[in-house]
Amino acid sequence: MAAEKNKEKVVLAYSGGLDTSVMVKWLQLEKNLDVVAICGNVGQDAQDLTWIEKKALGMGAVYSKALDMRSEYAEDFLTKAIAANGMYEDTYPLLSALSRPLIVKHLVDIAHETGASYICHGCTGKGNDQVRFESSIHALDPELKILAPVREWDLHTREDEMEWAKQHGVPVPTTAAKPYSLDENLWGRAIECGALEDPWKEAPADIYTLTADPMSAPDEPEEVVLGFEQGKPVSLNGKKMDLLSLIIKMNKIAGKHGYGRLDMIEDRVVGIKSHEVYECPGSLAIINMHKALETMCLDGVTLQYKHMIDQQWATTVYNGLWYSQLKQALDAFCADTQKFVTGQVKAKFYKGSMTVTGRKSAYSLYDYSLATYGEGDTFDRSASKGFIELHTLAATTWSKTQGPAAEYELQKQSENVHVA
């Protein structure tokens, strides 16, 4: 279908599901816009996505394209997440928040290429993703207008959408409504809603697809060796791999052993506490092994400070501010710390757990001759007494003047007065 002359265009973030399929037609009928439907594959689907292109074109879109963004996602986004040990609230590896700015980057580029005035997304009005999509759009091109149909149309339930689709010739899945809200990409899988809205109930077994039940996972542990160069994973079990392939492989290994399940109460950007369940086998394994190598290659003060930076980085990204001055500055700090984070980490998977069992690096700050209590010890014990005196000088001075020692003297003086 050719674009109508002088008709404005909208670039739609299109998944092929019910919501965005309805939007393809709704944007034409209710907003009188030509629709450019773009589907971004960030690891949620390895299959051929040309069916999505054809479906959108069949519903009247003037242009439709499925873009494989997986390699770009791994190299340009996940490398930064690994450098920052990116885990929101020190728990969750940020899979959804990491993919949104990449998708938006492509949507904005295509809006420029096609001359579109609008970008449209299918996010709800109470979730995090609306913030992430729109914050990224505003940062990359404040002149683009944003449409969020779910926040304004009168289709309040899935049944409403199905009926609207039937009336307007929109092909939609005929299967029953999914009981959960799902999001998946290369970095993991997020599950919410349905039975999970009761935080006291254990998550149903049928929600997991990336990880085995730890109880039925293999009875034999499996050891892996992950190689890093300047903080970036580059090899698995001695085999050099591009990051995309490495993450896919690590997802399979860790998932097979039931590792990577998370169940948490999470603080959303919009102020709601939400019960979330995640499957993050590869991402959790990689981040925790990266942390293990950092403990060997970064000094203690830097590690302590970097932990605060890592948490700020994760919160900033979670809040949709990937394209921000603060995020760029945090990236610069993390990148500088990774210059010598090069080496290997060994870890063992077993029935839902991963244990780091070894690490080595040519740039290690661990010095055996200083650490050992056996033969070859080079640590000068005679220096400790003077060090402790200087280390505690401020505390000793405070104690004598204001602290426990001063209080003791005051107490003695008070007791002497009473005795007299």
UniProtKB/TrEMBL annotation:
InterPro entries: Arginosuc_syn_C (IPR048268), Arginosuc_syn_N (IPR048267), Arginosuc_synth (IPR001518), Arginosuc_synth_CS (IPR018223), Arginosuc_synth_type_1_subfam (IPR023434), AS_cat/multimer_dom_body (IPR024074), Rossmann-like_a/b/a_fold (IPR014729). It catalyses: L-citrulline + L-aspartate + ATP = 2-(N(omega)-L-arginino)succinate + AMP + diphosphate + H(+). Residues 9-171 form the Arginosuccinate synthase-like N-terminal domain. Keywords: Amino-acid biosynthesis, Arginine biosynthesis, ATP-binding, Cytoplasm, Ligase, Nucleotide-binding. Residues 180-396 form the Arginosuccinate synthase C-terminal domain. L-aspartate binds at residues 124, 128-129. Its EC number is 6.3.4.5. GO terms for cellular component: cytoplasm. One of its GO terms (biological process) is argininosuccinate metabolic process. L-citrulline binds at residues 92, 128, 132, 181, 266, 278. The keyword ATP-binding applies. It comes from the Bacteria. ATP binds at residues 13-21, 122. Pfam families: Arginosuc_syn_C, Arginosuc_synth. Pathway: Amino-acid biosynthesis; L-arginine biosynthesis; L-arginine from L-ornithine and carbamoyl phosphate: step 2/3. GO terms for molecular function: argininosuccinate synthase activity; ATP binding. It is an enzyme of class 6 (ligase). It is found in: Cytoplasm. Homotetramer. Belongs to the argininosuccinate synthase family. Type 1 subfamily. NCBIfam families: argG, PRK00509.1. This is Argininosuccinate synthase. It comes from Parafannyhessea umbonata. The lineage of its organism: Bacteria, Bacillati, Actinomycetota, Coriobacteriia, Coriobacteriales. The gene is argG.
